[in-house]
Amino acid sequence: MTDVQRSLVLVKPDGVRRGLSGEILRRIEAKGYTLVAVELRDATPEILAAHYAEHEGKPFYAPLVEFMLSGPVLAVVVEGHRCIEGFRSLAGATDPTVAAPGTIRGDLGRDWGLAVQQNLVHGSDSPESAEREIGIWFADLGA
Ligand code: IDP
Ligand code: MG
């Protein structure tokens, strides 16, 4: 069975600011996935417009972009069998208040009462998204 996937993971600015980059990478590695690329980056409006194109027009879109520009992000490419689904499972639900304990968002995240949920991580949600997002963040890698 060859279902080796790559997923684009971001430690969002709240995670980097709170010093949780190492803890989040630790959980990915402890799960058994491989780190293919890890880079501390400043997002740009252009990168975010491409990355979050599906959310354009939603009420949290502008706060989301502003939040993602508020500090560096750790951009990561993760590899492993079914790692796209697997990382989403490690990350937990979008809303950190209800994200299950044991997940990154459930253990380390909370609601700060802001217009956008600061929920520590992004993870690609499908093979198509992963290919597209890896192309955005790591043009030299391919997917
Ligand atoms: P995901 O990150 O769990 O895949 P998406 O629906 O793709 O969630 O949304 C992208 C990001 O936008 C979320 O991670 C979160 O930061 C923010 N977001 C999504 N939905 C809401 C909402 O209803 N209120 C506030 N922020 C939201
Ligand atoms: Mg998403």
Offer a quick outline of the entry.
With 143 residues, the protein is α+β, with helices and mostly antiparallel strands.
Question: How would you characterize the overall build of this protein?
Answer:
It is a single chain. The protein is an alpha+beta fold and 143 residues long. The protein has a single domain (4-141), classed as Nucleoside diphosphate kinase-like domain (Alpha-Beta Plaits). It contains seven helices and four strands, in the order βααβααβααβα. It has a four-stranded antiparallel sheet with strand order 2-3-1-4. The protein starts with a strand and ends in a 6-residue tail after the last helix. The mean pLDDT is 97. The site of inosine-5'-diphosphate (IDP) has 9 residues, from loops.
Please report the number of helical segments: 7
Secondary-structure content class: alpha+beta
Straight-line distance between termini = 19 Å
Low-confidence segments, given as residue ranges, are none
Biggest sheet overview: 4 strands, antiparallel
- Overall CATH class: Alpha Beta
- Give the fraction of residues assigned to helices: 25-40%
